[in-house]
Specification:
One of its GO terms (cellular component) is mitochondrial inner membrane. InterPro entries: CCDC90-like. This is Mitochondrial calcium uniporter regulator 1, transcript variant X2. The chain is mostly helical and 156 residues long. It has a domain at 26-119. 99% of the residues lie in helices and 0% in strands. The chain is built from one helix and no strands. It has one helix at 2-155. The protein is rod-shaped. It starts with a helix and ends with a helix.
């Protein structure tokens, strides 16, 4: 019977150990749950902070994009104005060049007319002098012939 009493003691000790293990298990579960709740709570806080940071970043990105878009639109407008100004200046320069070419053409035409008129005047003057020279030559020939005939009659 001794072994039965030992067995009973062992069974009692085993039940005490099991009950103690059960208590520890309950404590661990409670501790685990409270740590899990703390972790969950911390995780929720981190999620909220992350969402706030994400919102701030998105707001900042939107602000930078808006600023960039505004700057780009201002720059586009400035470039368009410069292009328009350059186009006007180019058109004015083309108009001036066309006017200068027209003035040059008129001056050349007038110069050509003057040259043509002078050449025609010189040709006329040359023809007039030629005719005068022919008249004088003919007169001189007739005069010489008349004098020669006069001498010829005298000596004959």
């Amino acid at each position: 019977m001794h072994w039965y009493a030992s067995w009973k003691k062992m069974e009692i000790a085993l039940q005490q150990v099991m009950s103690h293990i059960g208590g520890v298990k309950k404590d661990m579960i409670i501790l685990e749950k409270s740590e899990f709740s703390a972790l969950r709570s911390e995780n929720e806080k981190l999620k909220l902070e992350l969402q706030q940071i994400k919102k701030q970043v998105m707001d900042e990105i939107a602000k930078v994009q808006a600023d960039n878009k505004l700057n780009l639109n201002l720059e586009k407008t400035r470039v368009k104005e410069l292009y328009s100004l350059n186009e006007r200046k180019l058109l004015e320069m083309r108009t001036e060049i066309v006017e200068l070419h027209a003035q040059q053409d008129r001056a050349l035409t007038q110069t050509d007319r003057k040259i043509d008129t002078e050449v025609a005047d010189l040709k006329t003057m040359l023809e007039t002098h030629k005719l005068d020279n022919i008249k004088y030559l003919a007169g001189s020939v007739f005069t010489c012939l008349t004098v020669a005939l006069g001498f010829y009659r005298l000596w004959r």
